[in-house]
Amino acid sequence: MKKIPGNTDYPKLIIGDRELSFPFILGPMGVGVSLSRLVAAFANEGGAGILSVVCLREIWSQRLKKKVSTYEAVTKEIATARALSPEGVIGLNVMVAVQQDYADSIRAAVEGQIDFISIGAGLIRDLPKINHPHKTAIAVIVSSAKAANIVLYRWEKNKWRDLGYELAAFIVEGPLAGGHLGFTIDQVTKPEFQVEVILPEVKKIAQANGNIPVIAAGGIYDRADISRMRALGADGVQMATRFLATEESDASLNYKLAIVRTTKPEDIIVSPGSPCGLPFRVVVSAPMYQTHLRAGREPRCNKGYLLRKDADGKFTICSAKTDNQNFFCICNGLLASAGYNPQEEDLYTAGANAYRVTEISTVKKIMDELKGLT
Q1: Which of 6, 36, 130, 300 is the most buried (most CB within 10 A)?
Q2: Beta-bridge partner residues of 90
Q3: Measured between alpha carbons, how far is 109 from 127 in angstroms, rounded to an integer?
Q4: How far is CA 183 from each of CA 24, 110, 278, rounded to the nearest angstrom?
Q5: 13-251+359-371 CATH
Q6: pLDDT tens for residues 27-55?
Q7: Domain residue spans in the chain?
Q8: Can you give the pTM of this predicted structure?
Q9: What does the mean pLDDT of the chain come to?
Q10: Rounded distance, CA 212 to CA 143, Å?
């Protein structure tokens, strides 16, 4: 990978067998925000871009005007990103909560020789057995030292190394992140659950287990935040919301403008309404969320990405199918906000610092600032 000029004070970050020019990772934003164009632009600036796998089969089915599988969609998205960034570091995020697509997404990523896979929205429980000649780097998203220890225990117990996987990094995500959170709503504001507290705890565990790289995530916005995380032991940082309202982002214009017009911290809240059961940070002004507050959308689920297994082992359960008082259909809302579901209302998710975004910018402009070039 070519070296990109910038602030040489930043430490080296290696994920698997790839070295980043800058220890910056683009957090996956789904649905349809962190796609090939945004991810490649970020990777071309010397960071690591992570594709979001959520609803990719719906997105590619619409693009091709025919039904495609998750495996096909992930394969096509990786190939598109790689064509736009032949030398860049590109990863794929897989959500444990999206149970039906989990294994096929990993298979497509491995066989497409993705640089690494990040796994979150639930704690990693299994990895599919795949015959492939190269090791696949796995970065696991954790929200506590306890979670990191569980990952290490499962890694050894299940002998995932023997299946061709390498535990390449811990991504320590605090409660200021956007989307699904690994905390209860009560924990989100408590000091002991903030990234500044959990990061050093996970760092100690990582150092005691082969010095696994530790990447800080959640609420990181500018160079001051990066310096603060580095002082706490972070080997790199993951950012997402800062890049949501960029020209390269595949969010709809309405989504980007909603972020720019979000001017106060209280405009972004943590809601309990996601059908997968995890707390979910959302922009209050989002049309679907406003409809949810008055239980105005008919309970239904016609996309099925967050279906869970019933007593017979079939994927049929989704809380949004039957309960519009306590849950809302995030799959349809997020697809709408990416321009793939015009018959539904938009749903906007973002990190807690989204109110600091004041303009639609470009990846290069933001990255130059973070590198210390401007």
Answers
A1: 36
A2: 49
A3: 12
A4: 24, 30, 8
A5: 3.20.20.70
A6: 999 888 999 999 999 999 999 999 999 88
A7: 13-251+359-371, 253-354
A8: 0.92
A9: 91
A10: 16
